[in-house]
Amino acid sequence: MVKSLKLKTICEGRFRNLNYVRDLPAHVIDEPPGLLGQDTAPNPSEAWALASRWGYRVSH
Fold first, then answer.
1. The pTM is what?
2. Which of 3, 11, 12, 31 is the most exposed place for a label (fewest CB within 10 A)?
3. Predicted confidence (pLDDT) per residue in 6-29, tens digit
4. What is the pLDDT of residue 54?
5. How far from each other are the two terminal CA atoms of the chain, in whole angstroms?
6. Which residues contact 20 (CB under 8 A, 6 or more apart)?
7. Checking phi first, is residue 33 left (phi over 0); if not, alpha (psi -120 to 50) or beta?
8. What stretch of H or E contains 50?
């Protein structure tokens, strides 16, 4: 079964994104200072690793 998910992404800073799914609080993605971020949340690779650990298939 294939299910489409809708989300909204807002770029809050240089490399900080707020991702909204349904009516849940924002899922924040940020980069460490060495990559011009503020290191306030997981970076995209860390978020992907966490999702794949739970068996989610992540693609673009």
1. 0.67
2. 3
3. 889 999 878 899 999 999 999 999
4. 64
5. 18
6. 7, 8, 9, 10, 26, 27
7. alpha
8. helix 44-53
Encoded tokens for 19:
């991702």
CA pair distance 49, 52, nearest whole angstrom: 5
Between CA 55 and CA 27 the distance in angstroms is: 19
- Residues 27-44 have pLDDT tens digits of 999 998 888 888 888 888
For Cα atoms 44, 56, 23, give the angle at the middle one, nearest 5 degrees: 75
Q: What residues does 21 pair with on adjacent strands?
A: 7
Query: Per the structure block, which two tokens stand in for 11?
Result: 């770029």
Q: Return d(Cα 60, Cα 48) in angstroms, integer.
A: 11
